[in-house]
Amino acid sequence: MEDLDTRVLRTAHEWQGQGLPVVLVTVARTWGSSPRPPGSLMAINAQGHTVGSVSGGCIEDDLIHRVREEGVEAVCAGGRPSTLRYGISADQAHRFGLPCGGTVELVLEPVSERSQLPELLAACQARRSTERVLDLRTGEVLLQPGARDSLLRLDDTHLRTHFGPRFRLVVIGAGDLSRFLGEMALSLGFEVIVCDPREEQPQSWTLPGVTLTREMPDDLIVRLQPDARTAVVTLTHDPKLDDLALIDALRSQAFYVGAIGSRRNAAHRRERLHEHFGLTDAQLQRLHGPAGVYIGSKTPAEIALSIMAELVAAKNGVIADASRPR
């Protein structure tokens, strides 16, 4: 399953390859409350078909009407990128369903060979952080290496957007819990890799959209070199496997590293990783164990929900309250 940005870019490229005029819409700036943040993408073809979104629905309806009635060239200022604002007045905000005081500024770009969508998709697939620079005067696009999580910038002549590697979840252990965790992660746009070298585990374990590997966990982590868009969660309850992954994951840039187990086992795990494998206090402080927020979870699905909630909070920069019971 693709993340939404990739799906928008891929679909826009496919429509353009079919000879359909296409507009790529980017949320460039917002003021006050807004339904979608800067960087959100939407594509509209000349037939009025869409993928992605820039609001709760009303702005999309107006954009579709404009594209179908006026045509892509007219909407995009004679075939060049143009900007459009919604919600400047209270009446317009009410008309388009924007929150009170909300304003959204959009950049509308006609998709062509100059858009370099295949090259951008290839960069994302290769996990290269990429800055896309759109010249608003000509429609020309420059792709260049970009810093992860850089902010979108719009000025009089250029729109600069950033496409980082897709968020990735590495799960150690193939079982019911990893299945639920994988399903949730896929629905949230994560790339998911499940690792389990144990011969006694069901060799038929599979989940559409998930990569399954039977290599040793430490070999996998070393091969992947987790970056700041990677999370690692160990689920086997077997220290011989979980610890192998945790040792290297805690030394990496992974934004989240978690391990399931009781609080007693978590304490023993920290002691073991410190005494026998030399992990520092700072590295061990990064370990979420037991993994997950406290919701009184009992079933594999509930435990997966708990872990995914904590993982997404870490992804979004939300600091968990360590005083809560676990």
TrEMBL record:
It comes from the Bacteria. Residues 15-87 form the XdhC- CoxI domain. InterPro entries: MoCofactor_Util/Proc (IPR052698), XdhC_CoxI (IPR003777), XdhC_Rossmann_dom (IPR027051). Transmembrane segments: none annotated. Signal peptide: none annotated. Residues 169-311 form the XdhC Rossmann domain. PANTHER family: ALDEHYDE OXIDOREDUCTASE MOLYBDENUM COFACTOR ASSEMBLY PROTEIN, MOLYBDENUM COFACTOR INSERTION CHAPERONE PAOD. This is Cytochrome oxidase I. It comes from Caldimonas caldifontis. The lineage of its organism: Bacteria, Pseudomonadati, Pseudomonadota, Betaproteobacteria, Burkholderiales.
